[in-house]
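Purpose: get a first structural picture of the assembly so the mutagenesis plan has something to point at.
Setup: two entries, given in the order below. No constraints added.
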Amino acid sequence: MGDLRIIVYGVGAMGSNMVRMLQSIKGCRVVGAIDWDEKKIGRDLGDLAGLGKRLGVKVAYPPAEVLGRVKADIVLHATTAFLDQAAGQISGVLEHGINVVTICQELFFPLPKNSARAKRIDAQAVGTGARVTSVGINPGFIMDIVPILCSTPCWEVGSVLVRRNVDFSPYGPDEMRHIGANLTEREFRKGVRQGTIGHIGLLETAAMVSHCLGLEADELRQTKEPILTVKTRQTPYVSIAPGRVCGFKQNVVGFSRGEKTLDFQMVGILSPDRQVDGIELGDYARINGVPNVDIVIREEISQKGGLGTAAVAVNIIPRLMAAP
Amino acid sequence: MGDLRIIVYGVGAMGSNMVRMLQSIKGCRVVGAIDWDEKKIGRDLGDLAGLGKRLGVKVAYPPAEVLGRVKADIVLHATTAFLDQAAGQISGVLEHGINVVTICQELFFPLPKNSARAKRIDAQAVGTGARVTSVGINPGFIMDIVPILCSTPCWEVGSVLVRRNVDFSPYGPDEMRHIGANLTEREFRKGVRQGTIGHIGLLETAAMVSHCLGLEADELRQTKEPILTVKTRQTPYVSIAPGRVCGFKQNVVGFSRGEKTLDFQMVGILSPDRQVDGIELGDYARINGVPNVDIVIREEISQKGGLGTAAVAVNIIPRLMAAP
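Result (structure tokens, whole complex):
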């Protein structure tokens, strides 16, 4: 990749994965780290990312302090799924003419509610000559890019069905909140109404597939249902009593002139029991077309989502740098 | 796609599929057809491609006559797997400044023996401003592009294993010759030595995957073994006696510093019997890396290879036209 200087913006689980992955990549050097968390500011990035060695790079804040002080080619941005929070952060990076790879889910394929923000970012990037891209596993790969690529040998595409079943047991407190772990059904449904529960990006995935495959869905409907456990479940971060929420089933369907053409479902569950839950972990996509395409990606990617997200962000760097 | 004028170069099974597929695509019009076969010259392309209607386009030869007479944007080229035969044909099209999509297997990722020819084509395309691309299902999609794309979420890639098992029963006399149907084992092995038996493109596939995934295989070894039947097998074009060849098993392995890093196997078999043959039709790829990626594409694509090849050639047109 030549000699590239990288700033990590957001030193949580994903940013730390990126730092770890970059250690084995020649020609890339982490030269700065940004995080607002007071418990992280001032700490060495190598310690924080669990490298077992110091990197001589201290986490700092505010962002402009790092961006103005350190000469860098790329910012790897991993702070939030929500574009209303990310937009200002990305804009602040672009002001310094630095390229951005973000894993902000809502920027992957901006929905109408985010299109004005996305257009401003695009205009700023064009104006400064810096490049911005949004990548990830989901959205960004498994439920969208894979089925879009796999439609290449199709004469026609009538509809697309995608299923993703993930064991969330290894994840930490943030993800436990997102899936509503150990809530009552009533509390879960309240969280859904408030927008605090569920996976961010499934609507973006459906919208991108619809666009790229010419399905022209004129309506996308999202639902989120709780999965209630009949037995106690234990994970490193939470214990779930019988009758409480141990996962979610999130579904987006899309209609084109009254016909269902898109059907995307993501299930996140804690300590799944195949017999009891009837859930096969892994990823599955079916394109109903001529010919049909039927793809199974077995368990491992779905269970290494954190690694995968860091990897797509790092692996996209050469393409970002080569982009016109 | 706007209003594109297309010439079909080679009106065999693949060219005919392309003509049929193009009928349902708005903004594309077939305006010429080239074939050297005297039984086809002068016939209407619609009749020949089995459209059930005439297109008002007559198959003609020599190529320069069609290329000089008809104004066209793109030639869909489907005459041969071999670049020594295809190179002159493609060059003849480029002389008229017309873009080319070819399914010539050897141009997909030219091996050293073909690199001079490929470079001449590239230089001529650059000189005339016309674009050339080589596409297909295999090579071009299922054993190469799919595993390359699916490595996106990998931190590391150590080795790649791909298996493709195809029932060749629906194919015609040409393919029966390629797979050595109803030969004795001795005749099969003689055909392998003479280069008349086997699938063209597996070496190209392995070379491309090695290149794109940074595996740097310094040696590729190809073997072709017969599959002998213990019972009579019947297909529309051939009857096979017990003890004779009913298929082939073609393998390419690649080594990087003594380690096996690539293992590609294609099996083509007639009237497979899962019990007897132990062969599961379909496509399978495994990336051994961090994380591992394990992909299954079920039977349908492998059994609709002809449709798929036509589709990738037609579906690439917008990208070809948008290329710089």
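The longest helix of chain A spans residues 115-128.
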